[in-house]
Amino acid sequence: MTQPIDRAEQFKAEIADMKLKTGRARVESWLQIVGVVLMVVGIAIAFGAYSASLNVTATPGTNVDLLDSNSYTPLAIAGLAISVTGGFIFLRYSLARFLRFWLLRQVYEQRVAIDDAAGRNSTGELRRGEPQRGVDAVGTS
Known about the structure:
The protein has one domain (about 25-125). The chain is about 70% helix and about 0% strand. The chain has helices at about 1-15, 25-55, 65-70, 75-120.
C-alpha cells in the first residue's frame, strides 16, 4: 500500500521540479470569482428591468406608457448577456485548472507505464537482473 503513496509524493516532487509558472493561479481564481459575480449581477439586472417594466402604469388614450414599458427590454437583454458572459468566464477558468492537472497526471502515468514496459525503476535506471527491453535494447550487445 506504500507504493501509491510513494508515487503520489514522487508526482508532487516532479511537478515542483518542473518549475511551471504558477503565479497565474491567483489571477485565475479571481477571474472565476468575477465570472460568478457577473452571472449574479446580470440576472439581477434582467430581473430588475422586468419588474420595472411591469410597474409602468397605463394612461388611457396615450401610447407613451407602452414605449416606457418597452424601453426596459434592452436593459433586460444586456443583463442576460452579462450573465452569459460571466458563465463563460467562470467555465473557462474552472475547466482550465482541472484540465491542466489532468494533463500533467496523464503525462506522468504514461511515463510510468513506459518505464515499466522498458524494465526501469522510478529513477529511470534499469532494474537489476532484468534484460533490457524496448527501443533502447535495439543495437546493443
